[in-house]
Amino acid sequence: MRKKIVAGNWKMNKTTGDAESLVVALKAELANFREADVVLCPPFTALATVSRLVQGTHMDLGAQNMHFEKSGAFTGEISAEMLRDLYCHYVILGHSERRQYFHEDDALVNRKVKAALAASLHPIVCVGETLAERDAGRVEDVVCGQVRGSLAGLSAKELLDTVVAYEPVWAIGTGRTATSAQAQEVHAMIRKTLAEMSDATVAQSVRIQYGGSVKPGNAKELFSMPDIDGGLIGGAALDAKSFIDIVRAAV
Ligand code: PGA
Q: Is 95 a catalytic residue?
């Protein structure tokens, strides 16, 4: 049985003060919640604050990006070791916004994934097609290509430490969610690809989140699909009540 995992991707939102208020509200409801894994991914500037606040709870800390090198002259970048130093356990890699605005491709994401795993961080690796790609009938080609490229060369153990997030680009921040059937179809394709890259047992154990306009009203149906193992939540993770409701939908 795969344990569901719900992660909040706060993107470029929340000062340290705002982060503190949100986490205090989340802790009131989720501090001892164990039925699903709950991960908070604030911006770098709020990681230390959130890290301190989630100590002793069952919530985990994640970052939204990192560099693949260990250290050195990479102005503005953050290493895996720096994230570990703040007790991060997860890092989102290859989010479509990074692919789109910062030109990250599968080869770069793959380097980051390997660096994260080498530092004992769990990568949450995002894949997903654009609307034009969907309309052109290229969903499998694009998404499974991203899975193969971003996770190339990983051992079975490394795949098991990795979370995949299927996030159709046309559903992110648009209010337009994939239907549960559309999402399930792609999740099954991703799992099949993982089986081809490794074996069926590994593929059955890797958690695949859905992301893209997940809200309290649609979470339960999405999370009830056989290959959907939780969600990566953007906008709805910025509000305590809606994030808590989504987390509870994972039970
Ligand atoms: P959204 O974002 O929930 O605001 O659509 C999801 C994401 O980009 O991770």
A: yes
